[in-house]
Amino acid sequence: MPNEKLMTNTIDASELSFNDFKSIVINDYKIAFESRQASVLGRREVLTGKAKFGIFGDGKEVPQVAMAKAFKKGDWRSGYYRDQTFAFATGISTIKEFFAQLYANPTEGADPFSGGRQMNCHFATKSINEDGSWNDLTQIKNCSSDISPTGGQMARLVGLAYASKLFRQNKELDYLKHFSVNGNEVAFGTIGNASTSEGVFFEAINAAGVLQIPMAISIWDDAYGISVPAKYQTTKEDISEVLKGFQRDPDQPGYEIYKVKGWDYPALCEVYEKAINVCRDEHVPVLIHVTELTQPQGHSTSGSHERYKSKDRLSWETEHDCILKMRTWMLDSAVATEEEIAEIEKNAKVFVRNAQKEAWNEFLDSIKPEQKQVVDLISGIAKHQPELAKIAANLASTADAQRREVFTAARKAIRLSASFGSPERNELLAWYKQQAKVNYDRYNSKLHTNGKEGPDMIAVVNAAYDEQSKMVDGREVLNACFNENFARDPRLVAFGEDLGNIGDVNQGFAGLQVKYGELRITDTGIREMTIMGQGIGLAMRGLRPIAEIQYLDYLIFALNVLSDDLASLSYRTKGIQKAPVIVRTRGHRLEGVWHSGSPISMILGALRGMHLCVPRNMTQAAGMYNTLFRADEPAVVIECLNGYRLKEKLPINVGDFTVPLGKAEVLEEGTDITVISYGSSLKIVQEAAEELSLLGISVEIIDPQTLLPFDTTQVCVNSLAKTNKLLVVDEDVPGGASAYILQKVLEEQKGYFHLDGQPKTLSAKAHRPPFGSDGDYFSKPSVDDVIETIYQMMHDANPAKYPPFFQ
């Protein structure tokens, strides 16, 4: 059957008979050859227009079969998009599923990795069920969802490997039987030689060496990065030469580094067995540099490598093709005869062709009923409007119509028949509306996990106080919150720059490393990308990480990891994987270009799929943390940088009270104007409101508390219905987060209909604030700015009552 899984087996020469050995080798050759045929046929399918684009793993088949032999249940892969042979050899993917993904088939079960949302060779295994509950990850050969940025998998790889260290060394985690068996799991990473030039690669390599974790990184080296040869990519044209300083010795920890030719099947099997045993048993990171690989079909379907490779290089690649070399070795070693190999190759071509045809036919068969329905429905309308018959005829004659053509025809017919009501049109309209819901699930669902532990499922518990509740610094509220939760949940870990020994630069974790140990509260180096990756990997393995970025400005250094990987994880896997990372940081007002950042619009644009919490004080932040610690979706929490030493009352239930996400709060009621703001700017607005009240202006102040999600109960529009005037005060750049808030309130909540004047925004200047208090005053909204902006709005509405200030 085309969907059969044919996996590789470990070779143990000491126990195998020759016939057993022969059977394993022949099976490995079969897997490699089938994978090559899948690449050849996949490229052809793109060039004939059946698929949009393709990148394939041709030339890497034999080392990936060898790697698969060392990959066990419970292990994890974090690779890149040329690992199809590994996926076939481990049983992670069938060839039919590979083609279903190439065709972007969204039918349930066709592409089990992404539901038709990702390009071919982007694999993933099912970590969670529909309700968000975990599977037993120790019984799965796990594959974290691939992303296309060529080095992007490296950050997450660090976290996947680091989890094994925590599971082995922290005995409090022994009860998590479905996530680890004594930390024996290895995290396998793969990357192309050209991508080792990227910063995230070096950052991850260094982090793993420092942490001493079971991370096994394989570098597939075919000497090029698209058209750019190694001499422009890598010092000495050899990445393992560059990394020699990481090699461990008897006195210093480091890596075990191996180098092996990618066409040498027995050597590859030996190296992978040895390297992974060291990695698994000793928790030492290993690097396997696989050299002399080829890329027979070039980089991708977008062009041919004959354009940039010399005739000598192309001739060398033909001679050193890993499958050809393995074939020759099998003949020379009498493992198989020419006739046996020829039979394997003939059958493989038939098998792969059948798998491709079945995947293509199933894709079309999922659309054909919709095509017929729309043709029939439009034809029915055409009885009253003959000019629509052409639309139906064109759709009916479209061979291999995809869903886009079907819906384009349906929507055009609906538009053209708008003035001609009929039962047939009503039927088409009803069909279209029903299918819109189906297509939402196919193409738009699962931006969030939306499971039984989603943030909206967490009970709301109000902060409680008694006569003994004392006023403390805001940092002490956070510290007490973290302390209570770390005592409650051993899965919680926290790490970041200066977080451990000194308890973070603002003392939110002061004293907690001594109490809970270095495994749970840990300092890191300055490496924002892999701090985020550390969090992603830990969360994917069932732990609850708090990954700290010291200042909000520094989040930019990790934005690629958060945006490409974490924020898109639930969506791109259609909900089969999750990573409930809490990114803790601090920002807004303080001093200067580098510590006053509020790049909220950048975050809003890049991190859909995560929650964005913007608490106005540390009590609200603690309540949000309490919610997130009990929920299972990722979030960024931005604490107010100037609030750590402001006094707040300490709740008696500091580790238990919760602040719901998406629920805006009216801080002060008013009748004249609605002001929406968040974070540190709220104190500015509240101070301004006091003076405005003396001028006879009543301000209603709303704190959305979270920007993702935003005001799900429509507090803002209800306020606007009362005041009819709107001002958004924001520390982001002009047209930044304030534009997002306006879109939410005026468009989504339909607040536009309640306005009796132009809505206004008051934001920071377009540049970062200069250093010093004066720099802050003249760059970000001040109390004076808020007073005068609101007064001007009132003047515009009633000049007689509110005469101008400055004329």
UniProtKB/TrEMBL annotation:
The keyword Lyase does not apply. Residues 472-646 form the Transketolase-like pyrimidine-binding domain. It comes from the Bacteria. Pfam families: E1_dh, Transket_pyr, Transketolase_C. Keywords: Oxidoreductase, Thiamine pyrophosphate. It is an enzyme of class 1 (oxidoreductase). Its cofactor is thiamine diphosphate. Its EC number is 1.2.4.4. InterPro entries: DH_E1, THDP-binding, Transketo_C/PFOR_II, Transketolase-like_Pyr-bd, Transketolase_C. One of its GO terms (molecular function) is branched-chain 2-oxo acid dehydrogenase activity. SUPFAM superfamilies: Thiamin diphosphate-binding fold (THDP-binding), TK C-terminal domain-like. One of its GO terms (biological process) is branched-chain amino acid catabolic process. E1 component of the 2-oxoglutarate dehydrogenase (OGDH) complex which catalyzes the decarboxylation of 2-oxoglutarate, the first step in the conversion of 2-oxoglutarate to succinyl-CoA and CO(2). This is 3-methyl-2-oxobutanoate dehydrogenase (2-methylpropanoyl-transferring). It comes from Pedobacter psychrodurus.
